[in-house]
Amino acid sequence: MIAKLKGRLDSTGLDHAIIDVAGVGYLVGASSRTLAALGPVGEAVTVHTEMLVSEDSIRLVGFARGEERDWFRLLIGVQGVGSRVALAILSALEPAELHRAVATGDKAMVARANGVGPKLALRIVNELKDKIGAAPGAGGISGTGIIPATAGGLGADAVSALQNLGFKPVEASSAVAAAEEELGEGATLDALVRLALRKAAK
């Protein structure tokens, strides 16, 4: 699994960028917000990535910030939300805005994104509301409410692993953060996941 790319921005398109990493060009799909944050062509960039594997393709989606990737993972877990729709939502709304919209049930704000009708916006709000905690400024864990302590790297992969096992994002984030604190910086992904599982199960 490719969790992060660090290299040079080779070129950009309407919905993607090509990142040159040691002479290899990685095609990375991205929201307009992420593309704007990458900076000028030729400059050094770091993008958090999500690998999408299907029967006939393997694709990378990139994000300027780890919290955007976390939201992408949540969004594509909703029935009817594919990667294109998820990126359209992240193009229209900042993570904090999206968090506020979901937490307060503001389906109209979610429906501002291209390709998101009222019914799908309502489904997104209903399915994600219990997964993200309170709205920003209302007792939430952080500005986005999800994965505050693991913006990228092994921590983000460990959180993803716990979510795949059925833990809610908030539970997974809390357990991984506690495991990271106990194990320190030199921890392997395997050790991090094992300890986080024990903490989450308590």
From TrEMBL:
Q: What is its main location?
A: cytoplasm
Q: Where in the cell is it found?
A: Cytoplasm
Keywords recorded for this protein, A-Z: Cytoplasm, DNA damage, DNA recombination, DNA repair, DNA-binding
Looking at the record, the residues that make up the Helix-hairpin-helix DNA-binding motif class domain are 73-92, 108-127
In residue numbers, the region (Domain III) covers: 157-202
User: What is the residue range of the signal peptide feature?
Assistant: none
Subunit comment for this entry? Answer: Homotetramer. Forms an RuvA(8)-RuvB(12)-Holliday junction (HJ) complex. HJ DNA is sandwiched between 2 RuvA tetramers; dsDNA enters through RuvA and exits via RuvB. An RuvB hexamer assembles on each DNA strand where it exits the tetramer. Each RuvB hexamer is contacted by two RuvA subunits (via domain III) on 2 adjacent RuvB subunits; this complex drives branch migration. In the full resolvosome a probable DNA-RuvA(4)-RuvB(12)-RuvC(2) complex forms which resolves the HJ.
Its biological purpose: The RuvA-RuvB-RuvC complex processes Holliday junction (HJ) DNA during genetic recombination and DNA repair, while the RuvA-RuvB complex plays an important role in the rescue of blocked DNA replication forks via replication fork reversal (RFR). RuvA specifically binds to HJ cruciform DNA, conferring on it an open structure. The RuvB hexamer acts as an ATP-dependent pump, pulling dsDNA into and through the RuvAB complex. HJ branch migration allows RuvC to scan DNA until it finds its consensus sequence, where it cleaves and resolves the cruciform DNA.
**Which family does the entry's similarity section mention?**
Belongs to the RuvA family.
List the protein's name.
Holliday junction branch migration complex subunit RuvA
Organism source for this protein? Sphingobium agri
Upper taxonomic lineage: Bacteria, Pseudomonadati, Pseudomonadota, Alphaproteobacteria, Sphingomonadales
